[in-house]
Amino acid sequence: MRTILLSLWMLAGLCQLSYAQQAESLDQLSDEQLLTMFDEVIQDSLAAERVARIYLDRARKEKDTIKMARGYDRLARIFSLERNIQFADSVITLTADLNHITYPALGYILRGYNFQLGDDLVNCTRNYLEAYKLSIQNENSLQQVYLLDKLIYKKAIWGNRIEALKLQKRRDELVQDKNYIEKLRSANRIGVEFDVEEILLNDFIVSSENYAFIYYNMRRLDSARVYLKEALKLLENYKGEHLDYHRNWVIEFQMELEYIAENYKESIRIGDSIISGGTGIYMSSSLFNAYMIAGLSRTKMLNNYESGLTMMLKADSIFSTEKIRIQPYKRELFDTLLGYYRSIDDDKSQMKYLSRLITFDSIMRVNYQYFEPELIKELETNELIAQKQELLARLNRNKRVNGIKIGVLFGFVLLSCWALVYYYRKHVLYRKRYESLKSNSGPTARKSKMRRQEISDEVIREILDRLEQFERKKAYLSADISLNSIARSFGTNAKYLSSVINLNKGKNFSQYINSLRTQYAFDRLREDRMFQRYTIRAVAGESGFNRAESFSKAFYRNFGIYPSYYIKKLEKDELKTTPNPAEPLAD
Q: What is the pTM of this model?
């Protein structure tokens, strides 16, 4: 025991020494080197916090308010939404009385960005508007362009499109100003380098995309097509870090444009191409749109629900498992699915999509109340609630009727079972009497005991061949399998099957099945980025487990780590290689 305690004490000492040495080495870096390192390690929250804390501590010692604000604004990027907002509040409080080109506007940008991640559109927009006012006051063109992009989209989706167009024209004035690049330099820290041509070209591409998006929402489709072509032409010369983002945006936008124009063959073609690209190229929100548009297009083109049902249900599945933002145009998916289940009198599914639409409308009502109160009149929430209540009453009536039917059926089954048992016992009794009479009237019958026979090599080979087919077909993913059911399907008995698994697989039946299932989950999580976004419960279900707890324990026994940890590590590795153009601007 003393040896163990001594070892633990030595290990703790080494960890503290390593941390102290690391902190000391970081402390030797210049301010700019620390900020550069923060950007490099931002996906590792522990490492990023360590760098930001050292920068902040140094700023406090120097009593440098702006540097302290930079420290807090770095901390506002790496934690949970609530904690990030608290650090953004620190930036605002610290610099509230300053007329600095970056602060406190950046604090409001960080607040807005985190509220957006939490789907709080109203508070997000309020903070962006406050930041925009400050960015104009302090002549920060970099912040103004960033904020205008955010506000243009929100106005185009939720508010007055004419106002969105005015904001875009204001953005044009900024990026076309002959002093724009100099203004960008003055908005950045001294020494920060950037590619002038790449920034200008990116800004022009975004302008074309913004115009196309605004005109699309105004249903001026010809104008939207003109700006889409302009964006495509500009992209031919763009080689910047956001190239993939822009390419995917124009493809997805063209799909939605063709759908609104009722060119369903083309919207289906583009949607199918996005789906075939998969998560290796597109984000889950893009795949949701592709499945939704491709499904709705098939439904409208062929004028029947079944033609696009599979794809619409796939879109619904992505919506349920991913963090897909609620926007007005997505409502059509759930309205269409509700219509389908009404057509086949599926009350349970109707209840699901009525509830989904009511939730949709409640969020839309809050957003419209803030952006464009007149649009609330278009929502039919009260009618949907009335339909839901009527459907619920019908389901309850059906439940009572079904309960009576089930009771009668259960009684009939019990009576039938009793009759069968009675008949069987009577049959056995008669047989025994017959054998007794027979033995008494003739020679005495000899009783013999069955010898336990070993399993033949031929039977073992046959069972092993069946197991190989069982594994290849992934039949183990069914949650309903058992030793007896598999033995029956193999044409053998459970005892033989259990013995062969024990002898040849080195495991009992339960361990054998769980090892196959967890290996399947392990491999699919590694290869399928969409599968990584499933809940643990959903992953367990897809892998054949009835309970998430059983899956997690079996996964840990096989691999020494829990599935939740494995998924997080896969996601972190993925994020390290994926640029995010929507991230707040750094100072």
A: 0.63
